[in-house]
Automatic annotation (TrEMBL):
Pfam families: DNA_processg_A, DprA_N, WHD_DprA. It comes from the Bacteria. This is DNA protecting protein DprA. Residues 85-295 form the Smf/DprA SLOG domain. GO terms for biological process: DNA-mediated transformation. Belongs to the DprA/Smf family. InterPro entries: DprA, DprA_WH, DrpA_SLOG, WH-like_DNA-bd_sf. Residues 318-369 form the DprA winged helix domain. NCBIfam families: dprA. It comes from Novosphingobium aromaticivorans (strain ATCC 700278 / DSM 12444 / CCUG 56034 / CIP 105152 / NBRC 16084 / F199).
């Protein structure tokens, strides 16, 4: 559906979209596939029980979409928080985020959405950051916001908080800061960042993918990280340990074809090992805000960085003929392309069979387009 269609989205269809996304076993992957197949969320909701029956093992209870009363309560909470919904085909939905393979179908936002049309850079790093790295993050963010950039980060302790504070202090010429949280739009995490989160919402923009009232769980943070990476032309890692969430964000940015940058640090400090590893893997070494601007100004989708690998522990969630793929699946992840080859069915038929298994609670989706049966 294009932007013009989204602009005329009816209230009932908007409600149905939220309900579809919140229904059991529906994630961004299955949401987009269902909307492509059935055109409207209302039609997709009607089809869910039959699809689930086809994918279910014997003895499983009938599938039921989420009750409308729960969505009514959610909408009320969003309004009470001073937020609004933004759909994947809304005119103001950020173009860079929409370029992801499976962008977040529905966001809740508070603040100045005009920041989403500004040139943008993500800044991420360690929660237990060194004092020097915190100052560096604050100085970089202030300088970039003063030059009209939207500085995107995750409102975590350490580098994230310093980036937001620096951008808020330096914002000028349309620049500012965007905070992406792993909780609902009305939940503050960490608790001590209540004032900072409120300031970001009032002077910048606050974004959440999770429903209001959702407390941040470990599995939510990779989803938040993909939004941070997806919103920005480039991601700068200031300080990070190996196998940290910041490196996941950087590698997701690389997978999306964005620039990946890192500030080098001492090999004697474990908090610098992640940045140094990124540089060795192909990230661009930067030492000043001018270096960042030089890389991002006029960026046209051809990054100089060559980081490509996405960690295995980042899980994505998620046609007319039928495809029987359940017998081809085990608990070991396998690529959907391989399933298409082995099943000899069309891509659309295989994808619909996977949705049926997912609705029935039998399927797990993994990184790089792989799937498996639940153990």
């Amino acid at each position: 559906m294009n932007a013009a269609a989204a602009a005329t989205l009816t209230r009932d269809e908007a409600f149905a979209r939220i309900r579809l996304l919140r229904s059991p076993n529906i994630g961004p992957v299955s949401y987009h596939q269902l909307l492509r197949r059935f055109t409207t969320a209302s039609a997709a909701l009607e089809a869910l029980p039959d699809l689930a029956v086809r994918g279910a093992a014997r003895g499983r209870a009938a599938y039921r979409p989420i009750p409308t009363e729960r969505i009514e309560r959610e909408v009320a909470r969003v309004r009470a928080a001073g937020a609004r919904y933004m759909f994947h085909d809304s005119p103001d939905y950020p173009a860079l985020l929409g370029n992801l393979e499976n962008p977040p179908p529905v966001l809740t936002v508070r603040g100045d959405a005009a920041l989403l049309s500004r040139p943008s850079v993500a800044m991420v790093g360690a929660r237990n950051a060194s004092a020097a790295a915190v100052k560096l993050s604050r100085d970089f963010a202030s300088a970039l916001a003063a030059r009209g950039y939207a500085v995107v980060s995750g409102l975590a302790r350490g580098i994230d908080a310093a980036a937001h504070r620096g951008a808020l202090a330096g914002m000028a010429d349309g620049g500012g800061t965007v905070g992406v949280i792993a909780s609902g739009i009305d939940v503050t995490y960490p608790p001590e960042h209540g004032d900072l989160q409120e300031q970001v919402a009032h002077e910048g923009l606050l974004i959440a993918e999770m429903p209001p009232g959702t407390e941040p769980l470990a599995r939510h943070f990779p989803w938040r990280n993909r939004i941070i990476a997806g919103l920005a032309t480039g991601t700068l890692v200031v300080e990070a340990a190996p196998r940290s969430g910041s490196l996941i964000t950087a590698r997701l940015a690389a997978e999306a074809g964005r620039e990946v940058m890192a500030i080098p640090g001492s090999p004697l400090d474990s908090r610098s090992h992640g940045c140094n590893q990124l540089i060795r893997d192909g990230a661009i070494l930067v030492q000043s805000p001018d270096d960042v601007v030089e890389l991002l100004v006029g960026f046209e989708g051809q990054p100089r960085s060559t980081v490509r690998e996405v960690p295995d522990d980042f899980a994505s969630d998620s046609c007319d003929e039928q495809a029987d793929v359940a017998d081809l699946l085990t608990t070991a992840p396998i690529g959907v392309d391989e399933l298409i080859r082995q099943s000899r069915a069309s891509a659309g038929a295989v994808q619909m069979a996977l949705i049926e298994l997912e609705l029935a609670g039998r399927l797990l989706r993994h990184a790089a387009g792989r799937v498996s049966l639940k153990g």
